[in-house]
Amino acid sequence: MSAGWLAISGLGPGGGALVTPEVTDALAQATDVIGYIPYVARVAPRPGLTLHPSDNRVELDRATHALRLAAQGARVVVVSSGDPGVFAMAAAVFEALEAGPPAWGLLDIRVLPGITAMLAASARAGAPLGHDFCAINLSDNLKPWSLVERRIRLAAEADFAIAFYNPRSRARPDDLDRAFAVLRDACADRRPVLFARAVTTPEEVLRIVPLPDARGDMADMRTMVIVGSSRTRLIDRPGAPILYTPRSAP
Amino acid sequence: MSAGWLAISGLGPGGGALVTPEVTDALAQATDVIGYIPYVARVAPRPGLTLHPSDNRVELDRATHALRLAAQGARVVVVSSGDPGVFAMAAAVFEALEAGPPAWGLLDIRVLPGITAMLAASARAGAPLGHDFCAINLSDNLKPWSLVERRIRLAAEADFAIAFYNPRSRARPDDLDRAFAVLRDACADRRPVLFARAVTTPEEVLRIVPLPDARGDMADMRTMVIVGSSRTRLIDRPGAPILYTPRSAP
Fold it and tell me: B-contacting residues of A 143-162, CB under 8 Å?
């Protein structure tokens, strides 16, 4: 039996043209693919490959399953959308590794990066992340809302552009409205806000509104929200406008 | 003559296995490739393709050149390493577009994302960006140092992991030491600092030291520096340790 390994891999935002050759190659060599149902659905079935789709919110179970299979000699790919290191499976696997048997420390584990959602959304709209920025997971499943709010205030004070991951879910319908309220209080200007839904897929929709008009119901679970800094600009032109943040700041 | 276009493209951190098929395809269709010398050197010459390597610090000239060629009907790829939207050529092209003739607003311009340095470095080390984080360009060519320092203090207060782009150059040998001094003052702990040099190339070197031991001369122009948050952990194990930030915060 060949030695097992574990490749925690990013599938990018959706389009096949954004999957790196490194990830394609790992999938071609894998015996097992593990991940959240819609991400595993992006992997083509083939003989010799077992697909293990699992439900949302079972990240640690999924990670433990992957480590156990690799320890048994399987060639395992854990798939995330975007990049596995940004609010995705890589940290969950390492949490499970720390909680597991010491022998797991000897496993061959690699993280294979992918195009994370904020980079894909930014590219489609222009370059809103062209100057200093931050990324905040808006979900308060794993941290208190008070910390989220504090980070938003400090990010606004630092004049970062802000990428909000997981801006909204059925269980948290109001968080994004609360985030916009904090931002309106801290910023009091008309900086542009990008709602980028299902980027690089056939369902892609981009929408840009000034901060005072931004509403939580403009996003859903498949939307990336990027709030500009005070210097982010819109270039009006036929077709879609270009949203970008200049490189310099005074 | 076919209609010209401009694709502002990211080549990823260095390894060919991290170039997206979308970028490979754009390069295959291009008539002209424009960029900083070492990035253009990563594009294979072929008949029908003109390479335009240019020196560092002429981003706006390069951007204007690219727009002018595309307006004349060329199929132009502007190359950056990493992602073009993160401290790279995309913002420069849009600045040049705004300053140029109105007709440039009609051009077919796309941004093709790439694996940016912090994602590649993070993947090689584990998952230090697994929780909220920020990215700061440490160069003060385009902004005052006082703003850099203010952002570092606010990022530490927010307890973000921090990715420092352009941490050091010959013209600014002391900036990274000054940044570490600000962080030591703001944090006063032994959080890990990752120096990831030339990631995914044969010259790759990773080094992790606690913040009190971090020194500017541990980085050069090819190094990505990632400073952990207060919760970033090291898993000791045979071979390389794993650096990661857990998903949750109290």
Answer: 143-144, 147, 150-151, 154-155, 157-160
Tell me the count of A-B CB pairs closer than 8 A.
231
The whole-number pLDDT of residue B181 equals 97
E-assigned strand segments in B129-239: 133-137, 161-165, 192-197, 205-210, 223-227, 233-235
Q: Are residues A164 and A228 in the same domain?
A: yes
Q: Note whether residue B95 is domain-resident.
A: yes
Residues A137 and A226 in one domain: yes
Question: Are B35 and B151 within one domain?
Answer: no
With a cut of 80, say whether residue B19 has pLDDT above it. Answer: yes
Return the pLDDT at B239.
Answer: 83
Amino acid residing at B73? G
- Does B106 contact A12 at a Cβ distance shorter than 8 Å? no
The stretch B236-244 carries a mean pLDDT of 92
pLDDT digits (tens, 9 = 90+) for B107-130: 999 999 999 999 999 999 999 999
- Biggest alpha carbon–alpha carbon distance for chain A: 63
Contacts of A103 (CB under 8 A, 6+ apart): A71
Chain A residues inside the 8 Å CB shell of B155: 134, 154, 158
* Interface list for A 229-248 with B (CB within 8 A): 233, 235, 237-238, 242, 244-248
Q: Do B151 and A160 touch (CB under 8 A)?
A: yes
Residue B180 and residue B165 in one domain: yes
Chain A partners within 8 Å of B90 (Cβ): 123, 126-127, 130, 244
Q: Let me know whether B101 and B152 are in one domain.
A: no
In B19-175, which ranges are E strands? 32-36, 50-54, 75-80, 108-112, 126-127, 133-137, 161-165
In a shared domain, residues A129 and A110 = no
**Predicted confidence band at B9 (pLDDT cuts at 50, 70, 90)?**
very high
Interface test with A, best of B78, B151, B236 (most A CBs within 10 A): B151
Taking the Cβ of residue A62 and every Cβ of chain B, the question of whether any pair is shorter than 8 Å is answered with no
Model pLDDT, residue B169 = 77
Residues A125-159 have pLDDT tens digits of 999 999 999 999 998 788 999 999 999 999 999 99
Are the CB atoms for B122 and A166 separated by under 8 Å? no
pLDDT of residue A131: 97
Q: How many folded domains does chain A comprise?
A: 2
| CA A205/CA A189 separation, integer angstroms | 25
Task: Give the CATH number for residue B173.
Answer: 3.30.950.10
- ipTM confidence score: 0.97
CA distance A58 to chain B (A): 13
Ramachandran sector of residue B161 (left: φ over 0; alpha: ψ -120 to 50; beta: rest): beta
Domain containing residue B220: 118-244
- Kindly state whether B96 is in contact with chain A, defined as any CB-CB distance less than 8 angstroms: no
Nearest CB neighbour to B111, from listed A17, A127, A250 = A127
